[in-house]
Amino acid sequence: MERAISYRLFIRLIICCLSECLALSICLAQDQSVTISVAIGNPLNHFIPSQTFGAGIDGHEYGDTKKIFTEKNIAAMKSVGFGPLSYRLRTELGIETWHWNNAGQWSDPVHQRGYWVSRAESSKPIEQSYGYRLPRRGNTIDQANNDGYSRLDDGDQHTFWKSNPYLDQHFTGEDNARHPQWVVVDFTKSTPINALRIDWVRPYATEYTVEYCTTTKPNDIEDEVPTEWHTFPWGTFDNEKGTSQLKQLSPTPISTRFVRIMLKKSSGTIPKKVSDVRDHLGYAIQEIKLGTINAGGKFQDRVRHAKGNVKQTPMYVSSTDPWHSIHDRNPNTEQPGFDRVYNSGLTNSQPMLLPVGVLYDTPENAAAAIRYLKSHSYPVTQIEMGEEPDGQYVTPEDYGALYIQVADAIHAIDPELKLGGPCFQTTINEYKVWPIGNEKRTWMTRFLSYLKERNHEKDYSFFSFEWYPFDQGCISTAPQLAAHPDLLRGVIERLQRDGLSPSIPWMMTEYGYSAFSCRAEVDIEGALFNADAVALFLSLGGDRVYLYGYEPGNLMDELSCNSWGNNMIFLADDDLKIRYRTATYFGAKMINENWVKPGDQPHEVYEATSSLLNKIGQPLISAYALRRPDQLWSILIINKDPINSYPINLEFHDKTTRKMTIAKGDIELFQYSRDQYQWKSNGEHGRPSKSDLPVHKTIPLDQVALPPYSLSVILVHLPD
């Protein structure tokens, strides 16, 4: 008997070690009961389900909009029980201008080029819309399909990068010293540099400095931007005339990975045969060469010049001119049109959270979109201003200047519209923005300060961010699920320290397990994570959440570790017809229909804790308590232990009377685990091998057990 027990114990310990998920003490405690404690007193938060739980729609590959927006797909999407809808703007991530209406006006109509404003009326419904790539692009990479490239090192003497003219004092009303423009060259490894050649076009910089970075860390620039900059000994240039000359930066080469060119004063000169004021504002560079010059004057260029983002040296720029032409439409992608979305029924007759282009668009185009929506009586009350400026290395002051101009244009149409953002791409770590001078404050602190200095703080009415905390989708999921509450709680606390007011709405406008496709998103872990993110955010004071992955999709392996997945609640075939519902579908329905009482009545959120912690103090079981309008207590319980099942005790502690009530008797139980859902991995052909409805039954509380990796909702009535 002792040998048998020891053998089973040995096997359990081996499993725990292999999964890297549980402390030894937990592995030994399969049958220990878990106490869920609910603190009755002042609620942590209030919310109305029909206004709180939303989902988002996005841009897609060309031709996919019609396939997605079918009656059957829409009926399936509506069956999840979401309320408000968010519209995600792919063009802001792809360095494109959004032609939300394909009819409109060019600033140079003769040549069908320049700056675009979509028409505020249409003779027929707008079913699709498109993004137009910016030919004056400076960034090598983008956050969408990443199939473009920088014009700063493409080797083409007919192309050039130009900064955004809307950041010039002509539009900002500020001295241009407040918005210096810049180019950062990333050699990806330490490289000797002491010479530079810039091929200028108009307008050129009359004053600029060239800096190198002392950072030697091999980290990806997306994880940590370089912060320590020093000007080359001979790297300051004044009274420049725009000539393309080789310039020596130091007597001997300096090894550095990053070089930054700070553009401080513009010539303001006009290119030939151009009359638009925007064409002579900012800075324009045709090509950049950086390298070494030897004693004999011979120059060796270290920049790789190519028309492709894989072969060329990576470039990052402060901004990009939204100038483009009729020939620049991206043929590979599209956005669903306004009329198609509003007429689909997916908005549930509620105002849609609407984006407008800020980084790569014009204020006039944003204002025209508002005119169109109002003329059609489409409900809209909140506008999300741009998308992911942090992930595109835009300084908060530049974003703020563009934000104010778009805000003024929109409020000239409707002063009551609520504006917000910035739809942060990342909030896990303290985001480090490119430092200008001695500026060391965080991105959010600088942005809020800028709005206040410009007397525009009232134009900032809500905060939005995306929540995809786990980039490592190829490793064990259990430690990540256990770490999640501390991650989100830390982000909220840090943003409050940055000065973000809790008195304005906070919105999680996208959420999912990872920003990269991986198996966890389509397996049971995806359902556990989404439920945890939603419930925790509400308990921390959040106001609204929008699931990303509302539309049917396909599997991808973005991490190249044979971990096929996607943030989606429906797995579709090649024609985007729904074939399977993933675990996140059933998890979302449990939140929308079981944890809450669906409808328009307020719910109260109360603190709930679990007695089960892992070795480093993280809860392996998370609990979230609601007082519903039907007077039932609803407890969402998430077991993040992939191995063990636990019986539970449920206690209610009244903070006012200090009375404790132990729940007993029959309760209503909804439960979802691997007993109902199993994923069969098979590369791009993976699918659920089992996808049943959650269990629903009424049983005595002392018979409830929490299966491994499970969601449970317990409804209990407490006597007054």
TrEMBL record:
Quote the InterPro entries the UniProt record gives: FA58C, Galactose-bd-like_sf, GH
Q: Which residues form the signal peptide?
A: 1-29
Tell me which UniProt keywords the record has, alphabetically.
Signal
Looking at the record, the residues that make up the F5/8 type C domain are: 118-261
Pfam family for this entry, one: F5_F8_type_C
- Name used for this protein in its record: F5/8 type C domain-containing protein
